[in-house]
Automatic annotation (TrEMBL):
Gene Ontology MF terms in the entry: catalytic activity; molybdenum ion binding; pyridoxal phosphate binding
MOSC domain location: 19-168
PROSITE patterns the UniProt entry points to: MOSC
Top-level lineage group: Bacteria
Name this protein carries in UniProt: MOSC domain-containing protein
InterPro entries: MoCF_Sase_C, MOSC_domain, Pyrv_Knase-like_insert_dom_sf
SUPFAM superfamilies the record matches: PK beta-barrel domain-like
Pfam families noted in UniProt: MOSC
Length: 180
């Protein structure tokens, strides 16, 4: 199956969910035009409190739509944008990709993966029990965070639902994504 963009979302405010839009414009080194998390330095409120000069490694939040199907089997109803993500994908195991993977989106945009989203208590405020549902343990007992991946914009451009996604892996050795 070819990897593709299913939905795109943005919000100018620190709201939990982000409304779906027809297209988004990615800005190199900044993030998504019109999104509250765009910028060279951190914009997530908890990270700003710690150190507002940190580089923004969370300019773009991506979630695979297959997660929503998994959550539906557990009794949750989650739609694109409702977990605060900017892009929803299909046909791509985002969580298995290494740090530094480049996702080529649409005609020219490129996002480089920086790490995993660390789910927070807001997810349980959205739907009770959802935070536990987006966390798991692997065979070795290690915590698995399934609430998406984060990235930075290397090359700007417009991205729309239906756009294909091409993947370029970094040179080895590969490092697993960790929370950012």
């Amino acid at each position: 199956m070819d990897a593709s963009v299913v939905a795109v979302s943005r919000s100018p405010t620190h709201s939990f969910a982000k409304p779906n839009v027809a297209r988004i414009r990615l800005l190199a080194g900044l993030g998504i035009e019109g999104d509250v998390h765009a910028g060279e330095t951190v914009k997530h409120r908890s990270r700003v409190q710690v150190d507002p000069t940190q580089p923004n490694l969370r300019q773009v939040h991506l979630i695979h739509t297959e997660l929503f199907e998994e959550l539906a089997k557990k009794g949750f109803s989650v739609a694109q944008g409702e977990l605060g993500e900017n892009l929803n994908t299909r046909g791509l195991d985002l969580l298995a990709l290494p740090v530094g993977t480049r996702l080529h989106l649409g005609a020219c945009a490129v996002v480089e993966l920086t790490g995993l989203r660390n789910p927070c208590v807001q997810i349980d405020r959205f739907q009770k029990g959802l935070m536990a549902a987006v966390l798991d343990r692997d065979g070795a007992g290690q915590l698995v965070r399934k609430a998406g991946v984060m990235g930075i914009v290397l090359t700007g451009g417009e991205v729309r639902p239906g756009d294909r996604i091409a993947v370029t892996l970094p040179l080895g050795p590969h490092r697993r994504l960790e929370r950012v």
